[in-house]
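wait is this the right file?? whatever heres the structure
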C-alpha cells in the first residue's frame, strides 16, 4: 500500500533507525535532510536519498519501534521485559486489566495494543503531567480509546474488582498487595517490576501475608550480537540491568 501523509515510517540508514511521521515536511539528520513529501506514494521497503545523497530505507515500524522511540519523562519498561510481562499476564483481546504507575506509558501502550478494541486498560497515575505524556504516546498508535486513565495516588484500594490481570510499576508496590488481591479475579496474575533487590524482598514479604501462589522472581538479560557472520560475537556493551520482575497468582485462601 502506498505511503500517505500521517503514516509512520522508520528511516533506516547505516544501522540507525529514525521514526518519522509523514505529516512533517522535513527531517534533519547528520547525513543530510530528507524531504518527507517525496516518501508519499512510495512503499515500505523502498529507498529515498537525503540532500547529501545518502540512502535511507523505508521500513514499517513495529510496536518495538514505537516503544523505543516514545517520549519519556520517567523510567520506562523496555521491550525485553514487556514481551515477557505480556505473555506471563496472558494479555489478549477483550481483557480488562489494571496497571498502577503509567509513567510515560510504555507498558500502557503495549497492554492497550494487545487488549484490542473490546478490552480496557485502567491506568492509575498520581502525576497528571505523566498521564498527558502517556496519552500523547498512545495517540501515535491510535490506542488512547482503549485506556481509562485515573489521576489518583493509590494507597489501599483500586476502584475495580474482577480484573483479569494487574501490573504494579510504582516505588512501593508492597503497600499495594492487599489492593491488588482485592481487585483481581481468583486464579489470575499479578505482575510487579522493581529496580532493586531490597524492594523485591519487601514485595515477597507482603505477598507471603496474602493468598498468592506461584510466586516467581526473575530478571531478563538481553545480549545482542554483532551480525558479522565471519566474526560472530556479542556486542561489546549491553544493558545489564533494567528491573526485577515478580509474578504471582491470586487464590482465595492461604
Ligand atoms: C517508573 S514510572 C512507570 C513507568 C511505566 N510503567 C512505563 O513503562 O512507562 C512509575 C510511576 O508510578 C507513579 N506512581 C508511584 N506511586 C503511585 C501510586 N501509589 N499511585 C499511582 N501512581 C503512582 C509515579 O508517579 C510514576 O509516574
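ok assuming it is, sequence goes like this
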Amino acid at each position: 500500500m502506498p505511503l500517505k501523509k500521517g503514516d509512520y515510517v522508520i528511516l533506516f540508514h547505516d544501522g540507525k533507525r529514525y521514526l518519522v511521521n509523514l505529516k512533517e515536511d522535513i527531517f534533519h539528520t547528520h547525513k543530510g535532510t530528507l524531504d518527507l513529501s517525496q516518501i508519499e506514494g512510495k512503499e515500505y521497503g523502498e529507498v529515498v536519498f537525503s540532500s547529501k545523497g545518502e540512502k535511507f530505507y523505508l521500513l514499517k515500524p513495529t510496536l518495538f519501534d514505537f516503544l523505543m522511540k516514545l517520549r519519556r519523562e520517567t523510567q520506562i519498561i523496555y521491550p525485553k521485559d514487556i514481551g515477557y510481562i505480556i505473555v506471563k499476564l496472558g494479555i489478549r483481546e477483550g481483557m480488562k486489566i489494571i496497571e498502577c504507575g503509567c509513567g510515560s506509558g510504555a507498558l500502557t501502550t503495549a497492554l492497550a495494543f494487545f487488549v484490542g478494541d473490546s478490552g480496557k486498560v485502567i491506568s492509575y497515575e498520581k502525576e497528571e503531567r505523566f498521564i498527558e505524556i502517556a496519552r500523547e504516546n498512545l495517540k501515535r498508535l491510535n490506542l488512547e480509546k482503549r485506556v481509562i486513565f485515573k489521576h489518583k495516588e493509590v494507597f489501599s484500594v483500586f476502584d475495580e474488582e474482577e480484573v483479569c490481570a494487574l501490573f504494579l510499576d510504582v516505588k512501593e508496590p508492597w503497600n499495594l498487595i492487599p489492593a491488588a488481591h482485592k481487585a483481581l479475579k481468583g486464579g489470575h496474575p499479578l505482575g510487579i517490576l522493581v529496580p532493586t533487590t531490597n524492594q523485591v524482598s519487601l514485595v515477597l514479604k507482603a505477598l507471603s501475608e496474602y493468598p498468592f501462589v506461584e510466586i516467581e522472581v526473575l530478571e531478563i538479560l538481553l545480549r545482542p550480537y554483532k551480525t558479522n557472520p565471519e566474526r560472530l560475537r556479542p556486542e561489546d556493551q549491553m544493558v545489564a540491568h533494567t528491573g526485577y520482575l515478580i509474578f504471582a497468582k491470586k487464590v482465595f485462601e492461604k
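The helical segments are 63-68, 79-89, 106-115, 128-139, 177-183, 197-208. so i think its the right one actually
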